[in-house]
Fold this protein.
Amino acid sequence: ADGKMNKVKWILTWPLIFLLFCTIPNCSKPRWEKFFMLTFVLSTLWIALFSYFMVWMVTVIGYTLGIPDVIMGITFLAAGTSVPDCMASLIVARQGLGDMAVSNTIGSNVFDILVGLGVPWGLQTMVVNYGSSVRINSKGLVYSVALLLGSV
């Protein structure tokens, strides 16, 4: 049964893996070593595209089920993006590197806030529409801050 599930998983993911293989140079091979920055930038662009589709689909699903965007964002999106960080922190903590686990947890949130919000807002106010202000439409800001403080 496990072998069949692996085949099904391979068939479902093959088109995506092929697309990434064709668009991102593998800088671990000697031929592409010099293109590591291109690999980084293209990987980041793919992550941005996947993130856009993930948020879009969660919004559509929430709208279909009658669940507000705030709840969908706080639960599904936040949990889904935090699980890889949590797994990485658990792995290094089990290796006896507790300081790395804590720095990963704090660092990823700081990076998300400063880069994930700062770069788009900076581009909007400096490049797209110089001197403009960014309007934030967040009905769930109070809940988000309360959850953040509660988790700290």
Remarks:
- The chain has five helices and no strands.
- Residues 1-66 form one domain.
